[in-house]
Amino acid sequence: MLKHLVLVILLAVLVHDHVHDGTTTVEAAGDGFVRTRGIHFVLNGNPFYANGFNAYWLMYAASDPSQRYKVSSAFHEATSHGLTVARTWAFSDGGYRPLQYAPGFYNEQMFKGLDFVIYEARKYGIKLILSLVNNYESFGGKKQYVNWARSKGQYLTSDDDFFRSPLVKGYYANHVKTVLNRYNSFTGIHYKDDPTIMAWELMNEPRCTSDPSGRTIQAWITEMASLVKSIDTNHLLEAGLEGFYGQSTPQRKRMNPAGFNIGTDFIANNRIPGIDFATVHCYPDQWVSNSNEQYQLSFLNNWLNAHFIDAQYALRKPILVAEFGKSFKDSGYNTYQRDQLFSTVFYKILASAKRGGPAAGALFWQLLTEGMESFQDGYGIMLGQGSSTANMIAQQNHRLYLIRRILGRFANIRRWKRARGNRRSGGNGGGSSRMELPQLLN
Fold first, then answer.
1. Tens place of pLDDT for every residue, the chain, 442 residues?
2. How far apart are CA 68 and CA 249, in angstroms?
3. How many whole angstroms separate alpha carbon 400 and alpha carbon 112?
4. d(CA 417, CA 402)
5. Nearest Cα to 208, choosing from 272, 135, 150, 267?
6. Is 373 a catalytic residue?
7. How many angstroms separate the CA atoms of 265 and 342, rounded?
8. In sequence order, what are the residues at sequence separation of 6 or more whose Cβ sits closer than 8 angstroms to the Cβ of residue 425?
9. CA-CA distance, 179 to 413, in Å (whole number)?
10. CA atoms of 51 and 57, how far apart (whole Å)
11. How far is residue 271's CA from residue 277's CA, in Å, rounded to a whole number?
12. Do 93 and 362 contact (CB within 8 A), yes or no?
């Protein structure tokens, strides 16, 4: 009873601080980069929850100066709902309005679009996760890279040769170097030095079905993670995985949806040095589409439980639900079904946060704003129009905000006690606060 009373008092104090002056919590000094500490994200020494959205279209829209207001509008609507992170593409290879129109050759107007996205995110206090290539044909992807190599006389039999061909890997490595070393024409900061960027993503949903053993993807992630870290030691890195289990944990493979033996390995891939946090995607409406709503929610519960447990005990790294959603194109769809899915994801993350677990937030797929209707894929949510789902998103972010404030205050107490102990003991250490949020909530 007492610990719940303490929690209520803490929450009341934090709400009072937030309403009346907003200045009570003292942020630890820092450089503004999101880091990891054990199984958690931290920002300037305090806990950080990466709750946000996907919007792959940001660079594309911003490459046309007359359309940049759509990016600003999206960020404004996101921050008004408490969202803190956006995941988007830092690639567009070949095809219509590309960023990279040939290996090593770039469209400056498109790059300026990405410059603007980073600049605008910085203004709104949004952190970015930037993905560096696509597994799929949309915006070029690995198929475009392989075709470029074929045009140079390379005999490649599969799009999966993206992961094996030295020439193709060289093309990708050059793109990584170009993006990370890019000088932003709006901010005057190189991308690799900009704390607005939270993390790099090696690839959107890497898959290598030609090698279900997982060795090909494992070798590629190892090589490219090392490359990224050799250029940029400031930013976090993740692989872009959907979360499918592989050969390293045969007992876990039964968790995968039927037929999803795609050459990735959630445990082995995320154990690679240089991969700072794990990701998982959630699309029960696609993966178990022939089942009813109740089964899909049960699958989602089990999927998240398994990955959160593995992130904490097998990987010892934070985990981010980097994509989730439900399409209104699904047969029999209604808004209540979408709200149930969002509620399940949010509840799991909140429960993990309360007990000090590794779940660091979720990014729904996808955020749209007025004028982006042509990008609607069934999953798009327009926060500006208002909906029960939008309200749920705002409520989740408020809850995580309060938890972050509580944990941040405890961190400040511990820092103060350590400093006081050092003064009293001549620098040999001292007492520390042992009061943790998980203890208060158990």
1. 444 434 443 444 343 444 333 333 334 558 999 999 999 999 999 999 999 999 999 999 999 999 999 999 999 999 999 999 999 999 999 999 999 999 999 999 999 999 999 999 999 999 999 999 999 999 999 999 999 999 999 999 999 999 999 999 999 999 999 999 999 999 999 999 999 999 999 999 999 999 999 999 999 999 999 999 999 999 999 999 999 999 999 999 999 999 899 999 999 999 999 999 999 999 999 999 999 999 999 999 999 999 999 999 999 999 999 999 999 999 899 999 999 999 999 999 999 999 999 999 999 999 999 989 899 999 999 998 878 999 999 999 899 988 888 887 776 666 666 656 666 555 544 443 333 454 434 3
2. 46
3. 34
4. 23
5. 135
6. no
7. 26
8. none
9. 40
10. 19
11. 9
12. no
- Are 98 and 140 within 8 A, CB to CB? yes
d(CA 93, CA 198): 23
Paired tokens of 417: 């006690």
Q: Which two tokens stand for residue 166?
A: 């030295």
Q: Which of 205, 238, 242, 293 is catalytic?
A: 205
**Residue in the structure block whose two tokens are 């990405």:** 114
For 18, 401, 404, 436, the CA distances from 25, given in Å and listed in that order, are 9, 12, 11, 17
Any catalytic annotation for residue 27?
Answer: no
What is the identity of the amino acid at 397? N
Q: Which of 322, 325, 368 is nearest to 55 (CA)?
A: 368
- Three-state secondary structure readout of the chain: CHHHHHHHHHHHHHHHHHHHCCCCCCCCCCCCCEEEECCEEEECCEECCCCEEECCCHHHHHCCHHHHHHHHHHHHHHHHCCCCEEEEECCCECCCCCCEEECCEECHHHHHHHHHHHHHHHHHCCEEEEECCECCCCCCHHHHHHHHHHHCCCCCCCHHHHHCCHHHHHHHHHHHHHHHCCECCCCCCEHHHCCCEEEEECCECCCCCCCCCCHHHHHHHHHHHHHHHHHCCCCEEECCCCCCCCCCCHHHHHHCCCCCCCCCCHHHHHCCCCCCCEEEEECHHHHCCCCCHHHHHHHHHHHHHHHHHHHHHHHCCCEEEEEECCCCCCCCCCHHHHHHHHHHHHHHHHHHHHCCCCEEEEEECCECCCCCHHHCCCCCECHHHCCHHHHHHHHHHHHHHHHHHHHHHHHHHHHHHHHHHHHHHCCCCCCCCCCCHHHHHC
